[in-house]
Write a structure and sequence with these properties.
The structure holds two protein chains of two kinds. Chain A contains 13 helices and twelve strands. By secondary structure, chain A is of the alpha/beta class. In chain A, the strands form two sheets. In chain A, strands 6-7-8-3-9-10-12-11 form an eight-stranded mixed beta sheet, sandwiched between helices. Chain A is globular and about 65 Å long. In chain B, strands 6-7-8-3-9-10-12-11 form an eight-stranded mixed beta sheet, with helices on both faces. In chain B, a hairpin with a 2-residue loop joins strand 9 and strand 10. Chain B is globular and about 70 Å long. Chain B starts with 5 loop residues before the first strand and ends in a 5-residue tail after the last strand. The relative contact order of chain B is 0.14. The chains are: A alpha/beta, B alpha/beta. At the A-B interface, helix 8, helix 9, helix 10 and helix 11 of A face helix 6, helix 7 and helix 9 of B.
């Protein structure tokens, strides 16, 4: 049995607005084992980034507030830590990389100074050691001309190169958990292939766990062992990658997978999900997907289904229809 | 075979970029010697990574930009050197749909007026007749007539893209240049918009020049595909041919880099080394030689020409 690294229980984050509050995510529960790559997928506004920011406790400068749940990293509840204690965790035990490498690096600092700063904050090293360590990290992420990159400013680097620098910086303190929020979305496909390859290699070599947040199901299929699907702030399905792609249970997951254009599959029309994602401030009662769901029943519009365990261990689904099917099978 | 609607011959476009008054001028080689033909009712897709010149090519075809050299022939007329005034009557035959549905609609104008604007310019319809056409168009693209009185911010990304499409359709163009029309949309919405584009093509006998970076999207919509790299067309072929028999090493790498949403799919990925060179300072010889896995000494000096290897299949690489 693998050791659990991160455990998130019933997490709820709300955002204050002029008129009341909106719930961005609710009842989000999942775990990540040591050395595992878990994918978190969903469309824009489904709450995947809010989930990651909540775990990292990076919501302080936003109107967002965590109002329920626990986040356990190695058994310690991060939500109970003081800011100072949390600072020691951020960057050291867990690090994060973002979609836009260009805007996440400080534009007026040389690359080496940014990385050295992070290293000296967390590891007991002097300037010379930290510089040496920086050089090692940059070499490890496959940067060809390390000396030149170290002395560059972020604007002098290409998108792929800055993402490598971000990864080197995130990796520099050997975190146990890397949260990667759409790390390759801003990059071209050939560069994306390079970065994904690098992340996989670092995972295998250092045993670092990765929470990979993406909207691209192709990336998930290639990288992850388990997948969590979110819709309108809720986890709607959770399964190992083979099961999810072969036998999706939730109607939303089914629709999402069907609507993907795929290489080598000649289709005239794509099956699409009608309608659009609901507005956070104006959520439907009951199941959040019910207005777009072709199987919607009476109960779906009234009561929200729970995330229940499926027959296969580790698989979960939030859907009244699936729940009823399970019960029916159980009786028969 | 019908007469081609668009013929592009050896198109060249260079932009001047200079950082300051005294610093030497730099030239960005955006498009170099691009040639292709699009037949009526056909979808020709241009694919490539950012900065490869696909959008510039789209703008040259619609003559929003003036080419430095080469020829653009639209519907049998050479429009390469047409002035803005000469182009205006032709504009009703060529319309564009843009990537950013948030940026391409004026936020202070109602949908009705946005969609009616091209009609005002290109037709003599009365206000009442224009309104009727607008309502019809909104229905055609899957919106409702009551949406006509709203402003763009009241719509989601997918709906705005539908408005952009309605606007382009309003003057019944022959050619629509769609520049990354679904890249900003979520997967489930992307499928809706792609289906709509296909339906409209059949209904109105449209010809598309479809610009995209996404090879899986292109496979669904295109008939013919041109692959661009650093301003050059490196390969062009009918869709089935290109996907089943890619010949240029860049096309092969690009195809192998697309993530496949199937965990049981195993394949040998070609990972390209290094970054895209800058179009300010393009490599000598073959543009792709700095990243090509099969690069030879000859590639570094000699510019490969686009040649036909089988029917309609053109490749710019001497080793295939």
């Amino acid at each position: 049995m693998a050791e659990v690294l991160l455990e998130v229980n019933h997490l709820r984050t709300e955002f204050k607005k002029r008129k009341g509050k909106v719930t961005a995510i609710d009842d989000v529960s999942f775990h990540i084992d040591k050395g595992e790559i878990v994918g978190l997928v969903g469309e824009s506004g489904c709450g995947k980034s809010v989930t990651s920011l909540s775990i990292m406790r990076l919501l302080r400068d936003t109107p967002g507030e965590i109002t329920n749940g626990t986040v356990l990293l190695g058994g310690k509840n991060l939500l109970e830590l003081s800011d100072k204690e949390m600072h020691a965790f951020q960057g050291k035990q867990m690090a994060m990389i973002f979609q836009e490498p260009m805007t996440s690096l400080n534009p007026v600092m040389r690359v080496k100074d940014q990385i050295v700063e992070a290293i000296r904050l967390h590891l007991d090293m002097d300037q010379a050691q930290a510089l040496q360590h920086t050089e090692k990290m940059l070499t490890q992420v496959g940067i060809p001309d390390v000396q030149q990159v170290m002395n560059s400013y972020p604007h002098q680097l290409s998108g792929g190169m800055s993402q490598r620098v971000m990864i080197a910086m995130a990796m520099s303190c050997y975190p146990e958990l890397l949260i990667a929020d759409e790390p390759t979305t801003a990059l071209d496909v050939t560069i994306q292939a390079q970065i994904l390859d690098l992340m996989r290699e670092l995972n295998q070599k250092n045993g670092m766990s990765i929470l990979l947040i993406t909207h691209d199901l192709g990336v998930v299929a290639e990288m992850c062992s388990r997948v969590i699907v979110m819709y309108a702030g809720r986890i709607v399905e959770q399964a190992d990658v083979e099961t999810l792609f072969a036998h999706p249970r939730n109607p939303y997951t089914q629709g999402l997978l069907a609507s993907l254009p795929r290489l080598g599959q000649h289709v005239d029309m794509l099956p699409s999900i009608p309608g659009t994602v609901p507005d956070l401030a104006n959520m439907p009662a009951g199941c959040k997907f019910a207005p777009r769901c072709k199987y919607a029943m009476d109960i779906c519009t009234k009561e929200e289904p729970k995330l229940v365990d499926m027959e296969k261990p580790g698989c979960k689904c939030r859907c009244w229809l699936v729940e009823q099917q399970m019960k029916g099978e159980g009786k028969a | 075979m019908s007469e081609p609607l668009v013929v592009v011959k050896d198109l060249v476009k260079t932009f001047v970029s200079s950082k300051g008054l005294l610093s030497p001028k730099k030239y960005v080689h955006a498009v170099t010697d691009v040639s292709f033909t699009i037949h009526p009712k056909e979808t020709f897709a241009l694919v490539g990574e950012s900065g490869c010149g696909k959008s510039t090519t789209g703008r040259l075809v619609t003559r929003l930009l003036h080419p430095d050299a080469g020829q653009v022939i639209f519907d049998g007329t050479d429009i390469t050197n047409y002035t803005v005034n000469q182009m205006r009557p032709l504009r009703s035959n060529m319309q564009m749909v843009f990537q950013d549905p948030y940026g391409s609609l004026n936020p202070r104008i109602k949908i009705e007026d946005l969609v009616a604007e091209p009609l005002k310019i290109h037709t003599n319809l009365s206000a009442e007749e224009r309104r009727k056409v607008v309502y019809e168009l909104l229905e055609v693209v899957g919106l409702r007539a009551e949406h006509a009185n709203r402003y763009p911010h009241e719509f989601s990304g997918g709906q705005r893209q539908r408005i952009g499409i309605a606007r382009a359709l309003s003057v019944r163009p022959k050619l629509i240049v769609a520049d990354e029309p679904v890249s900003a949309l979520d997967v489930s919405i992307q499928a809706q918009v792609l289906n709509l584009l296909k339906e409209l093509q059949q209904k109105y006998e449209l010809t598309y020049l479809f610009i995209s970076h996404d090879l899986s999207v292109v496979e669904m919509i295109a008939d013919k595909i041109g692959v661009m790299y650093l301003g050059k067309l490196v390969e062009s072929a009918p869709k089935e041919e290109l996907y089943s028999n890619p010949l240029h090493p860049y096309t092969k790498a690009l195809l192998s880099a697309v993530p496949i949403p199937d965990p049981t799919h195993k394949r040998n990925r070609i990972i390209l080394k290094g970054d895209l060179p800058s179009p300010v300072n393009p490599p000598s010889g073959c543009m792709f030689h700095t990243r090509c896995p099969n690069c030879t000494e000859q590639c570094k000096v000699e510019k490969p020409a686009l040649r036909e290897v089988s029917k309609d299949h053109f490749v710019a690489c001497p080793y295939v």
